[in-house]
Each structure stands twice: as structure tokens, then as C-alpha cells.
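Justification of resources, computational component.

The compute hours requested in this renewal are based largely on the per-chain cost of generating structure records like the one below. Each record pairs the submitted sequence with a full C-alpha cell output. That output is archived, and it is also reused by downstream analysis tasks.
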Amino acid sequence: MDKKTLEIRDYLAQTMPLKGLPLATLDELAASVEEINAEQGETIMRIGKTNDHVFLIRYGAVELVREDGILHGRFGVGDWFGHRSVIRGGEVNLTVRALEDSLFYTLSGNLFMRLFESYQRFASYFSEHKADRVRNALQELRNTDNHAMITLHVSDLMKQPMLVPKTTTIQKVAQQMNEHSSRTALVVDETQHLAGIVTDADFRSIVAHGLDIHQPVTEIMTLEPLTLAPNNQASEALLLMARRNIRHVPVIDKNEIVGVISATDLLRGQTHSAIYLVADIYCAQTVARLSELSKNLPKVLVGLVKQSLPAYDIGHAITSIGQAIVRRLIAMAEQQFGKPPIPYAFIVAGSMARREQTAHTDQDNGMILSDTYNEAEHGQYFRDVAKFVSDGMNECGYVYCPGNIMATNEQWRQPLAVWRSYFNNWIDTPNGQALLNASIFFDLRCLYGDCSLLESLQEDFLAKTKSRTIFQAFMASNALSHRPPIGFFRSFVLDKESVDSDEKGMDMKKRGVVPVIDLARVYALAGGLHAVNTWERLDAIAASNGITQVNIDDLKDAFEFISMVRLQHQAKQIEQGQKPNNYVPPEELSALERRHLKDAFEVVSNLQDFMSTRYKADNFR
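The structure output for this chain reads:
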């Protein structure tokens, strides 16, 4: 192979979707490539003519123009054109002109179609269906795992368990655990099936409560503990532990105990893990210690992104840290001010409620008080607790809400009956402020206290949103105020992070993830669905036939790709010592990433158009 052909092969080997093809195939392609030069303004293809070659832009740029003279798109280095006419049999539907002096590598139509029919990845890349291309891009993203945690399974890391019968005394189990240097024991019944689990932490409660050590171990064991299967991914086990704040999980295969796995097994050598951070948060005794621990959150985010975990799991892991801080602060407040005089629920809104947090965010929270609330008797207590928690969150990096959506604001610290009146007014009179409040408070989750207060409220307002078509139309109209950042000719729409900033980028929050979050909320409220997390809402919408399963799958893939671009941008900023933001400059992305991002945005935009038609949103804009 001569030097020039070798250079062509090396270039093709780094170009999608040829990257990863067998070396023999790449050698054949390089040998068959023809180079074509075009001067600025030169026409390469013309409508109505026949084309039998596929073009790869080596350098330069082209524009594609429709028959009516309207620009269809512009393409640059690393982009392909001509493939659609070859797939169709040769008919050219767009005129292609060189925008500048350009060099193209061309493949014959026959060779291209042979690759198209032989390699699924190759065919997916050139799919006419944008959603298929996004799905293929996600698969590529998942395949770039350079971290063992992704490829390992629970069976690779689990240990042989220590089994004890249900009748064994607490003292005997403690002795056996000490002899075996084990921090956990699995309690089994007469058939050797799992009955419960005991960890070293359970023995501390014996001392604290003065329990009789001669009682059976069943008195202190955790009944029906959470279990894993041997084929579960290690990364999934890690996220599960973080969500539930547990350190030891039995491993069960076909109802038989086969092992036990601990956080230590999963995370040897990893110092900034979600599960350890959450555990340390629950042990913190001061706000200063919580603040110190919270500073590790960005490092956890970087680690999760580097492991190529799905955005759904990253959101759950990062949220588990924030919600642990909130719960610990409330426990500290109760230590200082005493137990609550009446039942109440401490609620969070926004990304923490949806379990979709990334880096530190501002706080959105409130309190639902029992209807037995009396201001004179109870007011000062809840003011003190709210202030303690809000101030503590601010110290931990969850800054005060600019819109004052916090429990310290009396408006959002009210009895259940008042909250019901709020939601009734927002639903019955959906004006501008009501819609703003709705976009915040229809995503709620209880973190502490009597969660039945929130459950009762949600049952009430979901029954109303399901039947109020005017409210649904206003919500859909409001949701359309956030559109993906795609302008004419598929160009990106850029925004400034602030008025004083000279740098522009794509706002991957307001124009990226928010359009999907808002769309899912509209359909969920219209369907009376209880889910709050966006992915879970989308699944519930499909199950209720609100949107077809095919369209939901496409939307979830688009949401995942957009979310990962945002997360990777934030992780990169953290590693560079910068404060993470949501503004991604297009030049930060490769040509391939920009193409897939445009595809994802168009999938979202198309579903927004469908929503607009379904709920007659244009009548209220």
C-alpha cells in the first residue's frame, strides 16, 4: 500500500461510521476511494440528474438547495452527502454546490450499498429516521467504557455469605461474625432460604436500647432485605445502594442464596462514591461537616459521567446526596428545637423532586402542615426548623432560591387545606403566575415527615388536572415557550449565560432538557399519572397510551443524548476547575456529536408540535 493510500485509510478509520470496521474492509475502501476537487461555487450534483457515488468531505464545505431555491442545509469536514440518492437508486432531489474550494473522497454506489447491507452500525448511521441515528449514537456512547465498573457484574465481586439459623442468639451471631471477620450475616429459615440480614450496625442498637443478647437474632435483623441477582451490573448495584442508603446486599439466584456484596467490594480504591458520601452525610453531627462533605459532590458527578452511566442513574445518585443533606438537616433541627408539635411533610420541588439533579442547584422546598396547625401555638417552631434547614442547605452549596420558593417563605409553609386551595386556583385560573407555580409545584416529593399529607394533595389535584382541558391547553402552551435550540437550516441557536458575558452557547437546560421535562409533565397531568421523574413519566405515558411506545422510545433516547451532552460538558468544566454551567459551545462538540444533537433536538421538536396540536395550545399563545 503506497503512502497516499495509507493516509486515506488512516483518515477513514477515524471517520464515523467507518470507525471500527475490519482492517481488510478499510484497506479495500482506501484503495477504491477517488479524490474529487471542487472550486467555490461549483455544482457537484443537480436536481433531476443521476448520482452513483457517495461523498465524504475531506476539507471545504457544501450547501444543499431544494428545487424551490430554499436552502436545505450546509455540511463541512467529516460530513457525508450523496448517500440518499444512492439508496433511492440514483435520483438526485437536491442540488449540491461547493461553498469554498473543497476536496471529497468518493465511494462507488455499489461499494456503499455492500457496506450498507453488511454492517448494521453503518446502515443505522445513514438511516433516514433521525431517532434511529440518535439511538445508534447512544449505543456508541455506551460502548466507550474505559471503566471496569461498567463491565463487571455482581457475581465478579460478591463474597461467600455467612449463614445463621433464625434460632441463633444475638450473642452467638456476634461471636461468629467476629471469628470470621465478617461485617454481615444472612439469617435463613428451616429451608435455607433468606429470612433477613444482620450487619455490624445492628449490634450498635443493642447497646443503645439495652436489648437482651440471649434473644434470637430475628429481634434485630432486617426482614425481607433488598436483594440482587448475580448478573446485575456492578454499577447498577452501586446506584441501588446509594438510593436506599444501604451497604450490604444479599445475592440471590433462583431463590437460592449465592453470595453477599458490600459497598466496599464495589468501590475498592474509589474515594468519591455516592454511597459512601451519603453514609457519611447521615453520620455528620454539624452543619459545617455537612458543608465539607457536600464539596465532594462535583467529584462524584465526574466519576459517574466517566463511567458512562445513563443520565437516569446519574440523576438518582446525585439527588441521593442532596436529599440526604436535607434529611440530616431536618434531623439536626429537631434535635435543637424538639419533635414537631403536629404532623407535617417537608417537600422538595424541581430537579430534586424528579431525582434529576446534576451539580449543586438552588433550593426549592416547602412544608405541608397538618390542618390542626395553630399559628400561635406552632408557628415559631416551624419557622425555626425552616430557617435552620434553608440556611444549612445554602451553606452546603444549595443556594437560596431567587424566587423565594422555600419553606422559610410563609406562603409555602401552610396547612394542607391552604395547599389544596393553591392548587385549585392554579388549575381553575391558569394565568401567567399560576402556570409558573404549576411548573414548579406539580413536581413534588416528600423527603421527611408525614408523607400522607402530600399523597392526599396529589390525589386531589391529579383528579382535577385530568379533567380540566382548559388547564391542559394552557400548560401545553406554556411548555412550548422552551424550544430546542435549532433555527433555520438546522443551525444552532446560541444564548449568553449572562448579559455581561461575551461567550455564547446552547442552553442545554432551558432549550435542552426542559422541553422534554415540560412535555412529560403536561401529558402526566392530563393523564392523572403519579410519576414525577421524567423517564418514569414517559414510561407511564406510553403505558396509558398518551403517546405511542415508538414515539416514547424515540423521545427517551433523545432526552438521554441531550442529557449526556450536558453532563459531559459539566464534568469537563469541573475537571478544569470551573464552575459548571449549562451553556455548551457548538465548537466544543465534534461534527458527529453536533449532527446527533441536531437529530435529538428535532425528535423533541416534532413531539412538541404533536403536543401543541393535541392540546390546542396555539389557541392560548
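Residues 144-151 have pLDDT under 50 and may be disordered. The first helix runs from residue 3 to 13.
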